[in-house]
Specification:
heterodimer, A: 115 residues, mainly beta, 7-stranded mixed beta sheet, 4-stranded antiparallel beta sheet, B: 115 residues, 6-stranded mixed beta sheet, 51% strand, globular
Chain lengths: 115, 115
Amino acid sequence: EPEVTQTPSHQVTQMGQEVILRCVPISNHLYFYWYRQILGQKVEFLVSFYNNEISEKSEIFDDQFSVERPDGSNFTLKIRSTKLEDSAMYFCASNRQGMRQETQYFGPGTRLLVL
Amino acid sequence: AQSVSQHNHHVILSEAASLELGCNYSYGGTVNLFWYVQYPGQHLQLLLKYFSGDPLVKGIKGFEAEFIKSKFSFNLRKPSVQWSDTAEYFCAVISEGGGADGLTFGKGTHLIIQP
C-alpha cells in the first residue's frame, strides 16, 4: 500500500539555521499538508498546498516558513531561521481531492530539535 | 474556530476490558470527524471517520464511534481491547466547506493495555 514518506527522520540544528524538511506524498495525491506537534501538545495544522500554491495556512505559518513542490514527487517545508520553539515533530500528509471528508494520509514525521 | 477536547490523557486497561475514549468538539456548523491512531514507532493512521449518514461508524480492528450531534461528541469504543491496541489515539475535526484545510486535533489519549 502506498505511503507518505518523510526525510530525515531526525534533524538537529542550531538556532538561526535554515532547515528543509522533505516529504514524498502518495503519487496520485494532489493536496498536501504540513502539521507539527510540539512535545506534549496537540498536532497543529500549518499549511495546505494544491496546484503549486498555498491553499490555506494557520497563524503559526508565518514568514519564517515556506513550502515548495520542487519537482513531481517532493514537497518541502523550509524554516528560514530556526528558533528554539520550532523544536517539534513535523508531519506531512496528503490526499487526492482535498475534500473535507477525505482521509488525510500521514507520513512518519521528522523530529526537529533546535539547540 | 474549531476546537477538540479529549478528556483522558492517559488510560490504562487490562486485556479484554471495554474501552471508551471521549471526544468533544466545539464548532457551530457541520463537521467531519476522525479518529486517528499512532502505534509506537509508526505514523498516524485512520481508524474511522464520520461525515454523513449513520452516526454509528465502524472502523478497523473492531473500533467504532458514535456521533451525537446534540452533545458535540464523537466517542471511540471497543468492546474488548487487546495488548496490541496500546497506542496514542487522536480525535480530529474539520469543518464542512470548500477548499483544502487542516484537521483540528485533540491532545490525544495514550492508551496502555496490560496483558
